[in-house]
Amino acid sequence: MAALTSPCKSTTRLEAENAALRHQLIVLRRKLRGRVKLANSDRWFFIQLYRWFPSILEVLTVIRPGTLVGWHRAGFRSCWRWKSRSLGGRPQIEMDLRHLIRQMSIENSLWGAPRTKTMAVLKFSVRTGRLVSRVIAVTAR
User: Fold this and answer.
1) pTM for the whole thing?
2) d(C-alpha 26, C-alpha 106), whole Å
3) Which of 46, 58, 89, 139 has the fewest CB atoms in 10 Å of its CB?
């Protein structure tokens, strides 16, 4: 059956299969004894081939197809974990604290940001910066 489907395969797919087979031979020649040791560059090569040609799983003999798919998924997860990481900066202010500072500034419109901050610390043991009080407070017009 494979002989009948071979002429129908595209040349790029055949080249990819040949590249995978050649790379597997290179990896096997590097092996001293026992288990095959794959370098990160080998993993990257197989993952890229899998991304471009998912049918490459039929040709792989050095590694199991499930292992390759697992590497691909792990790389995808680590990429998105890195992209969605916290970039630092100021910690977020809770909504309850925002409402409290806004209410204090509305009720005491003559107070400025320093006094609003001082009163929040004295009455409610809340630690904020003066800038936070200035940004959240409602300004008198």
Assistant:
1) 0.38
2) 74
3) 89
